Amino acid sequence: MAEEKKLDMKELYKKLSAPPQVLDAFSTDVTKVELLGNGAFVYYQKDAKIIAAHSTASVTDGRRIDTRTAVRESYTVADAKDEFGTGKTVTSLFNENGLTLTQLVTLYDSADHLTVQAVLKDDTKETETNYLAPFETVYPDWTYKPLFLSLDQKMFSVPYDNDMWTRYDSVTPRPGRKSYDVTAIYDEHTNEGLIIGAVDFDTWKNAIAWSRFDARCTVAYSGCADEGTHDTMPHGTIIGETVSSARFIVKWTEDIHTGMVEYAHLCTAVTPAREWHGKTPFGWNAYSGLGRLFTLKHWEEAADYMYEELTEFGDEDGVAYINIDGAAGLDDEELKRIVKKLHDRGQKAGWYCGPCLSHRAFGPYMKIKGTDTPLSEIYLKDKMGRVIPPMDSAVPLDVTHPLWKVHAENTIAYLLSLDVDYIKIDFLSHASVEGDFYDKSIRTGRQAINRAYTILSDAINKSPKEIFVDLSIAPLFPYFLGHARRSCCDTFGHFDDTRYALNALNFGWWAAGSLYRFGDPDHCTMYHSMIDGRPVTSEIEAKSRLNCAVISGTVLLLSENFGPTGDEANIAAARDRIKRLVNNKPLMDIARIGKPFVPLYFKDGTTPFYTLQHEGRSYAAIFNYDSAAQTISMNPAEAGLPAAGVAVSANDGTEIPYDGALTVALDAYDSIIVELK
Fold first, then answer.
1. What average pLDDT does the chain have?
2. With pLDDT > 70 as the criterion, what percentage of the chain qualifies?
3. How high is the pLDDT of residue 1?
4. Measured by CB atoms within 10 angstroms of the end CB, which terminus of the chain is less buried, N or C?
5. Superfamily (CATH) of domain 282-598
6. pTM (global) more than 0.70
7. What are the start-end ranges of the E strands in 111-153?
8. Which distant-in-sequence residues (6+ apart) come within 8 Å of 329 by Cβ?
9. Containing H/E element for 264?
10. What is the mean pLDDT of residues 152-173?
11. What are the Cα distances from residue 646, in Å, to 187, 205, 404, 655?
């Protein structure tokens, strides 16, 4: 008997360890999908076996469906055509617990990516869900890409928004580690890896996380609401006969640098970015340099100083924007006089607004724009009727309320009446929090922010001229409202500010020139910030802060007190330093290109090396992050730049011959931008 039992266990082990049955396979010239008998599918790129995945979903009463345990009812293949091209869609139907999950996997004739989507139907009643996971990887084995077995594999972690000084990160596997909307699982030494990213941002907040339950596995899902999205309520549910997840791109790439840019362009094939027909924006912003000291006299003085003294600071036509930020209660007639003065001499004017929130203390007293109704009447509430807790000390407004539309449209109409050319819109994440919305057809925070963006965009488009729209605190997705989005939270003039802004360039450069026309490294304080609370910035730190802004691809805004009132010594010193550093044609010409430099490495922390190739010319930027002087070397050939030649400093014209390695000596926190010839 004992021997018989032992034999049974061997047979059972043999059965359980056998490779899953391949039910069928479908391919294009570039990709192939195998359907497995265990409910998973395998993604191939050409002949390379990348990874296998399955799908899961749940409804609000707790019932779940998992294609690994569900019954596969059927599968079919049909020709497909969508925003990404032609191909074929493999449709598999699974049943479990009174639920039907339709898994859609689309292969393309001339592309190396898949799209994957899950559609859920409750067979017992109307479907209601806030969790759909179309792509969950399986535990890898040696037949898949070796990366997925590596203990050193990294996840590119993308923050949901840029609030609260959050950062991009490169992290090793740990249950629950998360990236919002898109990620890459990659090898930081070779840059090869798997990009997984949503391309639909009209309904769901999406995330990709290391699984809490399955080792070495990741899950891409629609329905994420947590501390990273600033939510106190669960993600809203979607109700219908069937409910669909966002579509996720799954793409193996030999180089994350090009793969992330390709992913961004796939997004804009679904929802186009806001078009811009003007040039790279240069200018000044009041906030950091002046804070609450701001007056219209400071605004006019900044405009005069820049017009008279900063002869190289502007776009190709010499135009600069002079922007008010965070001010209220100003004299309209004086405003219009100054705007006309700016326009008459070729400058432009900008303003700030934050239409999606109210500071709680002011809400009962501040009015919905153009009405006598207090803003507190349209605070966003939860399902118990309680006001949603403040974010950054401000309460989200219910952007689905008819009075919010009045508020937003009147806010924009007022700015247009002043004839401004640039509108900075702040605290847009408040429009995306989950709540019990006035308009019951809006069930999720993503639906709400899309409604808000559409209303704001339509209001701005009423202008007879093109207005530059810069999003400040805002989610990375959706993106269609802005020509630019601040890459990070408030960033001032010290080197830790520069390093923080470079973190956003290091991991987020791919959004500039694709999702948004420009990157925005925040206003560039180079002498003293009234907001920051720290002492004067050193000249070397100022140089690095400017270099960081120049390579960010770029909304290049200064922010200093240029007078007429304030600390006279600081004003004089700021005017002198800014004039010396920015009246530099080679440096400003690089900024005017309006393209982000690309990080040389995609590793932990932030690389000190960035490169750009543009119209046959090659550039590199090198930063010393250390508090001591360093001699630093980079290999330009690694970025496809000339392997030998002369590097000419855009900062001071110094020529540095190099052969193989480009070596520079940099003081503490110093930096250099060079053209390689």
1. 96
2. 98
3. 43
4. N
5. Aldolase class I (3.20.20.70)
6. yes
7. 113-122, 127-129, 131-137
8. none
9. helix 256-270
10. 95
11. 32, 48, 58, 6
Copy the structure tokens of residue 141: 């084995």
Measured at the CA of 109, the angle between CA 108 and CA 111, to 5 degrees, comes to 60
Determine the CATH number of domain 608-676. Answer: 2.60.40.1180
pLDDT digits (tens, 9 = 90+) for 510-523: 999 999 999 999 99
Strand partners, 556: 282
Of the candidates 357, 342, 465, 450, the one whose C-alpha atom is nearest the C-alpha of residue 411 is 357
Rounded distance between C-alpha atoms, residue 148 and residue 189, angstroms: 14
Number of C-alpha atoms within 13 angstroms, CB side, residue 536?
A: 13
pLDDT tens for residues 205-217? 999 999 999 899 9
* Cβ-contact 518, 593 below 8 angstroms: no
In the chain, what are the domain boundaries? 20-270, 282-598, 608-676
Beta-bridge mates of residue 446: none
Task: Tell me the two tokens of residue 122.
Answer: 């409750």
3 CB-contact burial (10 Å; exposed 0-12 / middle 13-18 / buried 19+):
exposed
| Nearest-10 crossing angle of helices 445-460, 402-417 | 30
Tokens representing 373 are 């109704």
Non-local (6+) Cβ contacts of 216 within 8 A are 137, 139, 140, 148, 149, 173
- Helical packing angle, 539-550 and 585-593, nearest 10°: 40
Q: What's the pLDDT tens digit per position in 169-187? A: 999 999 999 999 999 999 9
Q: Given the DSSP bridges, would you call strands 468-471 and 422-425 parallel, antiparallel or unpaired? A: parallel
Mean pLDDT computed over 134-156: 95
- Domain 20-270 in CATH 1.25.40.340: no
| Gap between the Cα atoms of 567 and 300, Å rounded | 18
**Would you state the pLDDT for residue 16?**
67
